[in-house]
Amino acid sequence: MKRPSDVTQEIASLSRDLTSVLKVLADRGESALPAEPESAAVAVSPVAVVETGMGEIELPPTDLGKEARMESLRQQAMECRRCRLAKERQKVVFGVGSSSARVVLVGEGPGANEDRTGEPFVGRAGQLLNRMLATIGMDRKEVYIANIVKCRPPRNRDPEPDEIAACRPFLDAQLETLRPEVILALGRPAAQSLLNDQRPLGQLRSVVHKLGKVALLVTYHPAFLLRNPARKAAAWEDLQLLVDVMVSKGVCGALPEPWWRP
Ligand code: SF4
């Protein structure tokens, strides 16, 4: 049992605490103690929101279906001014391809032709990419093609880290929606960004990386191969590795022999 002096000290202590609380509330302009929070009222937002520090993107509900989700994201990208690349762009290049694609190709950013047409990988680099896909028995329509930034960097420079960070929620939402089995990163900026690994491209290719549960492979950007045709043999090896991974994941059956050998 507490002695009377202990009880007096306890009341004095509680009184001091209460005085402090009331002073804080008075400083905030409040005249009453806050009510108990209501329980069991869980608000379910129809959309998730990704805060980038430069504005928000709304992630469409998963029950919308892939095509509707991608369209919702595309509409948001069309109006996006989250980074400085919005200033000089002609068109936002969101991405193109099948919403049921199990293979996604990711480049670094739009060039002049893409900026003009709004479609990724057009022009000579796009034609080479189409030929590369054809050699492994795939058509451009079967894959999804996107970039790590959706607007053209001036004079085709590499995208800056803050531009990549600003645009990354779009790519992440695209990948989350498509849920591919395999991602092929085209070129150093795309590979380094996706893998969060700053090693040179030569050290990132020839390896099956993991991005969550997704296999991620790396090869040269077709525009680089146009300037450096001697690297096409190495890109060919990367495509063979891509096919091996696709076959192992059941993305395609074994291709007829000798499909790549002369
Ligand atoms: S690059 Fe991406 S983040 Fe920057 S303005 Fe274009 S869509 Fe927005």
Q: Rounded to an integer, what's the Rg over CA atoms?
A: 27 Å
CATH architecture: 3-Layer(aba) Sandwich
Largest sheet: 6 strands, mixed
Quantity of strands, as a count: 8
CATH topology, by name, is Uracil-DNA Glycosylase, subunit E
Distance between the termini: 96 Å
**Major sheet strand order:** 3-5-4-6-8-7
Helix proportion of residues, in percent?
40-55%
CATH class: Alpha Beta
Tally of DSSP helical segments = 9
Structural class: alpha/beta
Count of all domains: 1
Strand content: 5-15%
- Morphology: globular
Under CATH, the homologous superfamily reads Uracil-DNA glycosylase-like domain
The bound ligands are: iron/sulfur cluster
Low-confidence stretches: 10-47
What features would you describe in this structure?
There is one protein chain. It is built from 9 helices and 8 strands. It has 262 residues and is α/β, with parallel strands linked by helices. The protein has a 6-stranded mixed β-sheet with strand order 3-5-4-6-8-7, sandwiched between helices. Strand 7 (209-211) and strand 8 form a beta hairpin. Bound molecules: iron/sulfur cluster.
Describe the structure concisely.
The chain is of the alpha/beta class and 262 residues long. The chain has 9 helices and 8 strands.
List its salient traits.
single chain, 262 residues, alpha/beta, Uracil-DNA Glycosylase, subunit E, six-stranded mixed sheet, two-stranded antiparallel ribbon, 9 helices, globular, binds iron/sulfur cluster
